[in-house]
Amino acid sequence: MAGTPLHFHDLTRSELTGLIASWGFSPVHAARLWSYVYNDGTTEIADMPEIPVRLRERLGQEISLAPPAVVSELRSTDGFTRKYLLGLGDGRRIETVLMHFTGRVTACVSSQAGCAMGCGFCATGRMGFGRNLTPGEIVSQVLHVRRETGPGAAVAGSRLRNVVLMGMGEPLYNYDAVMKAVSILRDQNGPAIGVRRITLSTVGVIPGILRLADEANPPHLAVSLHAATQAERAALVPVAAHWPLDALIEACRRYCEKQERRIFFEWALIAGRNDTPEQAHAVGRLLRGLPAQVNLIPLNPIVGYDGAPSDRTAARRFQETLAGYGLPSTVRQRRGLDIAAGCGQLAATTAAEEPAR
Ligand code: SAH
Ligand code: SF4
Q1: What are the φ and ψ backbone dihedral angles of 65, each rounded to 5 degrees?
Q2: Residue 60 domain-assigned?
Q3: CATH code at 44?
Q4: Which residues pair with 74 in a beta bridge?
C-alpha cells in the first residue's frame, strides 16, 4: 500500500537479510535482529543493544515494529476465551481470539478486515469487505496472543501451540499474504509454530484449494460445508453458487490425495435447518471415501439472523448418523459465548455501540 511503512513482520528471514545487506550490513545482524524480535519478543528498536547504532537508525527510519493497538479486550466468564479487537495502522479493526486449554493456547486470527462472502449467519459477513490484511498484520495477531502467554501475562505458563485462520475474512481470497504469514510463523528460528499446527478455514474457494493441494507443505485445511446439497448450501453460503458442491468435494479429494492428509469440514448446527437426519445422511454419503473429520459447531446466535443453535440431543443424533458412515466428528464446545466470540461478532457489536460521528 502506498505510504504504509514496511513492517518487520512482513519480511521473511531471507528478505530481512537481503534488505540489510542492501544497506551494507552483514547477515549476522539479520539473524540477531530476527532473534530479538521473534525469540525475545522485543518491540522497540532501542532495546537491541547488540545491533550497531547506524543499523538501528536505518531500521527506525524504514521499518515499523509497532504491535497493533488493543482497542478492547473481552474475557469469557468460563475463563477459556479472550477476544481482542485490534486496531490497524489505517484505523480498521480486526478480531483475534485466544483460546486457552490446559497448558496450551490456540490463536484464532483474521485474514481480512471484514469479508465479501456475505454468509447470513456470520457477523463478519454482514459487515461487508474492508480490505486484505498484509502478512505482517496476520503475523502480528499471533505474536499478540503469544505475548499474552509470557511471564506475568494473561495466561502465563501456557504455550502457544496452534494457529487457526478462522477469524474474520476468507483466507483463500488473500492467498499470497496468508501463505507468506504461514511461512514466517513456521520459521524454526522465528515463531516456530509447528508445521502441523496451522489450520486454514475456507468457505470453499475451489481454485485456492487446488493451489494448496500443489503446495510443498500447506497448512491443514478446514472447509465450511454447513449443508450437504447444492441448493441448501447456496442458501446458507451465497458464494456456493459459484463453487458447486460436487466440484468442491473433488478439490478436497485432490488436496487429501496429493498431501496424504485428512481434511476437516465445519458445520454450524442450526436448529431445524441443517441438523436433520436427512442432512446427516446426505453428509455421510457426500464425504464417503474421504479421510474427513466433521467439526460440528452449534450456531453462535448473532443479531440479524434468526437461526437458533441445535440442542445437545440433535447434535448427538447428528454425530451418531455420521458415525454410521464411518465419519469421525466432534461437537465443539460453545466457548466464549458471553463475549461474542463468534466470528466478527465483537467488531460488529463495538461498531454498533460507538456513538455516531
Ligand atoms: N471465511 C472462512 C474462515 C472464517 S469463518 C470460512 O468461512 O471458513 C470461521 C468459521 O466460523 C466458519 O466455519 C464459519 O462458517 C463459522 N461461523 C461464522 N459465523 C458463525 C456463527 N454465527 N456460528 C457458528 N459458526 C460460525
Ligand atoms: Fe466470510 Fe467465513 Fe463469515 Fe462466510 S463465514 S462471511 S466466508 S468470514
Answers
A1: -120, 5
A2: yes
A3: 1.10.150.530
A4: 83
Q: How many domains does the chain have?
A: 2
Query: Which regions of the chain are under pLDDT 70?
Result: 1-4, 333-357
Q: Which of 97, 110, 122 to mutate to test the pocket of ligand 2 (most atoms within 8 A of CB)?
A: 122
Q: What is the pLDDT of residue 102?
A: 86
Q: Is residue 1 part of a domain?
A: no
Last residue of a domain, one of 25, 47, 64: 64
CA distance to 77, 185, 188, 192, per residue, from 155 (Å): 15, 20, 23, 19
The whole-model pTM stands at 0.94
Does residue 194 fall inside a structural domain?
A: yes
Q: Cα separation of 130 and 83, whole Å?
A: 20
- 148 by DSSP, 3-state: which? coil
pLDDT for 220: 97
C-alpha cell at 214: 500443489
DSSP 95-140: EEEEEEETTEEEEE--SEEE-SS--TT-HHHHH-EEEEPPHHHHHH
Q: For the CA atoms of 285, 286, 288, 293, what is the dihedral angle to 10 degrees?
A: -120
Do the Cβ atoms of 136 and 37 come closer than 8 Å?
A: no
Question: Which pLDDT value is given to residue 195?
Answer: 82
- Residues annotated as catalytic are 95, 343
Ligand nearest to the CA of 97: 1
Q: What pLDDT sits at residue 76? A: 85
Whether residue 295 lies inside any domain: the answer is yes
Number of continuous H segments (helices) and E segments (strands) in the chain: 12, 14
Whole-number Å distance, alpha carbon 126 to ligand 2 midpoint, is: 9
